[in-house]
Amino acid sequence: MPLGEAEVFDALGPGGFGPLVAAFYRRVRADDLLGPMYPPGEWAQAEWRLRAFLDQRFGGPMAYSERRGHPRLRMRHAPFAIGEPERDRWLALMAAAMEEVAVSDAVTEVVAPFFLMVAEGMRNR
């Protein structure tokens, strides 16, 4: 039976999306296209935001909304120039991170389409 979205957090095990997000941001920091979009000194906050957002979206604690309110993803990303190259790189780095931490096929079936939808929705160029 396929996983429901609310079951993904538990299916990931201890740490929820933490290991995936850490693997993703290790790649982003070294990336020539996405890395420069992040202000120096903001890495820990960016990592927390993505982890907390994904944990909450997929059945985990509500820490993101408790601390930041509604996600408003498009509004929060509006200051950044995000076109097809940025979207594609984000998806590639996330896919590599998912492979690194061995995200199960059941979880991938749920989160990969979501990542594609969100990445496309962030495009503003």
Automatic annotation (TrEMBL):
<dbReference type="InterPro" id="IPR009050">
    <property type="entry name" value="Globin-like_sf"/>
</dbReference>
<dbReference type="GO" id="GO:0046872">
    <property type="term" value="F:metal ion binding"/>
</dbReference>
<dbReference type="GO" id="GO:0019825">
    <property type="term" value="F:oxygen binding"/>
</dbReference>
<keyword id="KW-0349">Heme</keyword>
<keyword id="KW-0813">Transport</keyword>
<dbReference type="Pfam" id="PF01152">
    <property type="entry name" value="Bac_globin"/>
</dbReference>
<dbReference type="GO" id="GO:0020037">
    <property type="term" value="F:heme binding"/>
</dbReference>
<keyword id="KW-0479">Metal-binding</keyword>
<keyword id="KW-0408">Iron</keyword>
<dbReference type="InterPro" id="IPR012292">
    <property type="entry name" value="Globin/Proto"/>
</dbReference>
<comment type="similarity">
    <text>Belongs to the truncated hemoglobin family. Group II subfamily.</text>
</comment>
<dbReference type="InterPro" id="IPR044203">
    <property type="entry name" value="GlbO/GLB3-like"/>
</dbReference>
<dbReference type="GO" id="GO:0005344">
    <property type="term" value="F:oxygen carrier activity"/>
</dbReference>
<protein>
    <submittedName>
        <fullName>2-on-2 hemoglobin</fullName>
    </submittedName>
</protein>
<dbReference type="InterPro" id="IPR001486">
    <property type="entry name" value="Hemoglobin_trunc"/>
</dbReference>
<dbReference type="InterPro" id="IPR019795">
    <property type="entry name" value="Globin_bac-like_CS"/>
</dbReference>
